[in-house]
């Protein structure tokens, strides 16, 4: 293992992890940690907002898995078609080109997302992917098996999808992340033009909006759709063209947390709660409507 002590004492930056000798000797990060130069021009100089005013419609891809092979042990996801239809309507209203893919096996999901990641997005402002399926923490189910989420999101990293560098890449994931149940508790109180030659991390400008926190179930009503997608669509309809995305998703969190509670004939599954989880690597504020919030 390389000794980085002298470098740290001299005022340099050191990782909070072991450094292999190969990395230390070259003085460069590995492929997974490298930076990319921005070749997109997503905004004005020193802008704190993503520019959403591009000539072509951005893409919104929805993977909607309802039926699963018996070998997976996963049941029918009744209500998911309601989610998919509501999402399609919301993102069409926001000006996206929306494509819905139903009942995709693992290979199908990878092929669909790999294909779109290789398209030319230079005239588009962003990319949205919505995954509606069963899942476990870190994985999503195709109709035949599960696949690590990382295998899908990596396709859009800065070193893989150059025409989305400096632009927001949003993933909304409606799936379980484990088998824990939240019983709840009573509350005690009421890319810039100036970015041409800048280097940015390959993992920058992603946002992951999960329906639940790691380790927990995610709830879905068989008639009305999932709690998370119901809430997301309602907030998008009301505030999609006015609120910044993090503010909007905070309202989604509150709606799911305060307005939903499970009703089940199975005692252990009755009266349970849920809280979505937002993971953001966005580097600017994001408004879906460029006309309302120009700087």
Description:
With 295 residues, the chain is of the alpha/beta class. The protein has one domain: Rossmann fold (3-Layer(aba) Sandwich), CATH 3.40.50. It is 24% helix and 19% strand. Strands 3-2-4-8-11-15 form a 6-stranded mixed β-sheet, with helices on one face. Strand 2, helix 3 and strand 3 (97-102) form a beta-alpha-beta unit. Helix 3 runs parallel beside helix 6 and helix 6 (227-239) crosses helix 7.
The structure class reads alpha/beta
Arrangement of strands in the largest sheet: 3-2-4-8-11-15
If you compute it from the alpha carbons, what radius of gyration comes out, rounded to the nearest whole angstrom?
A: 21 Å
Number of helices: 7
**N-to-C CA distance:** 49 Å
Uncertain residue ranges: 1-9, 18-32
**Main sheet makeup:** 6 strands, mixed
What is the overall pLDDT average?
86
What's the CATH architecture name?
3-Layer(aba) Sandwich
Range of strand content = 15-25%
Would you spell out the secondary-structure blueprint of this structure?
Blueprint: H1 5-9, H2 21-26, E1 35-37, E2 59-64, H3 80-93, E3 97-102, H4 106-117, E4 127-132, E5 135-136, E6 139-141, E7 146-148, H5 149-153, E8 169-174, E9 178-180, E10 199-201, E11 206-210, E12 215-216, E13 220-221, E14 225-226, H6 227-239, H7 245-259, E15 277-280
Helix pairs in contact: 3-6, 6-7
